[in-house]
Design a protein that fits this description.
single chain; alpha/beta; nine-stranded mixed β-sheet; two-stranded parallel ribbon
């Protein structure tokens, strides 16, 4: 039986109409229909499932293959940082060439297949790159899987066209898609966005890199510098990368090159962060290496392992130099604890020098 609800006419008329139509007159107006619930698009930012379901999904995921030993795996965003002129670019090109050829860098493992690599170079010009990989008139024969992109903004500027920092990532994405590369190396990250010390800038950049990684199933390695005032007496840590520490927090892995104080030309490679494997090359077992140039190819040669501590500088700071450095850092917003770590001195000494 259907109901007849008031129409705004006199009640007597509504009752007659209801009776003539064989309906039950209901003096109470019908309730307003509930508005349809919208499907919030942001709910897709998360995918909840039981722990058992995640275990089942994890079992179906392919094992992450090594690109450069335990330092960098397929599908990861990794960061390599070091001081200027220590050999970041040398090692990065060596890794790129290794992946392009499908040949590991001894003594590190690589179980990934050969892949097409795009090396975005903001550092070297054409002649500078050439000189690194030629000797006595003989050139190194790079594999065709190794593709180098040199930064050439002057081509736009000469035509009166300006560009924004955001468009650099767009340009990289264009060439990743055009060249169908699966490995991306960026040398170096400070050229992608200014103000990397700012957490918001760092977060926005990492979001873009993660989107790029997800959209094209990329493995990404980005190079970065260390601060000019890094304390050579202290072990290398995540705090030593120039820019916001948020970069390393959001990366999958990070490793660094340090210079040894024991002899000229000796360097060491150290794991700073890892998610896909155990830490094999931490402070008690860094990898020693030197820059060499066999077969016209500038590269790092690895020659064993050692604790990091013997390779750190043993020089001490005199109080006169510290009395200048401490207030300078304080004026830049460093806390006393940060100054202590930066200069390798105790909190008590920092407090004393600030009072002076």
């Amino acid at each position: 039986m259907e109901y007849y609800y008031p129409t705004g006419r006199p009640e007597k008329i509504d009752r007659i109409r209801a009776e003539s139509r064989g309906m039950i007159y209901c003096p109470t107006p019908p309730p307003d229909p509930e508005p349809a619930k919208e499907d919030p698009i942001y709910r897709y930012l998360f995918h909840p499932a039981t722990g058992k379901r995640w275990m089942d999904l994890g079992e179906q995921e392919p094992v992450l293959k090594m690109l450069f030993g335990e330092f960098w795996h397929e599908g990861e965003i990794a960061i390599l940082f070091a001081d200027t002129n220590v050999g970041k670019s040398v090692l990065a090109v060596q890794i790129a060439n290794s992946i392009a050829e499908g040949r590991p860098i001894a003594p590190f493992s690589m179980d990934a297949d050969p892949a097409k690599v795009l090396y975005v170079d903001f550092e070297l010009g054409t002649r500078q790159f050439y000189k690194r990989y030629t000797q006595a008139g003989a050139d190194y024969n790079f594999n065709n899987n190794f593709l180098r992109a040199q930064f050439t903004p002057e081509r736009l500027l000469a035509n009166g066209i300006d560009y924004r920092e955001e468009q650099i990532i767009d340009a990289i994405e264009f060439w990743v898609m055009e060249l169908k590369t699966t490995v991306l190396i960026i040398d170096n990250i400070t050229c992608l966005r200014a103000g990397m010390e700012n957490a918001t800038a760092a977060l926005n950049l990492m979001k873009k890199l993660k989107t790029l990684q997800a959209d094209y199933n990329l493995s990404i390695l980005v190079l970065a510098h260390t601060p000019k005032r890094r304390n050579p007496c202290a072990p290398i840590s995540a705090d030593d990368m120039l820019g916001s520490k948020l970069m390393i927090n959001l990366a999958d892995s990070a490793f660094a090159i340090g210079t040894s104080a024991t002899q000229p030309g000796l360097r060491y490679l150290k794991q700073i962060k890892q998610r896909s494997s155990a830490q094999l090359y931490g402070g008690d077992n860094v990898c020693l290496c030197r820059i060499t140039k066999p077969h016209n190819f500038l590269q790092m040669d690895f020659e064993g392992h050692s604790p990091e501590r013997p390779h750190l500088s043993s020089r001490t700071y005199n109080q006169k130099a510290l009395a200048t450095q401490v207030p300078e850092l304080a004026a830049r917003g460093y806390s006393q604890r940060q100054i202590s770590k930066e200069l390798g001195i105790s909190l008590g000494m920092v407090n004393k020098l600030m009072k002076m």
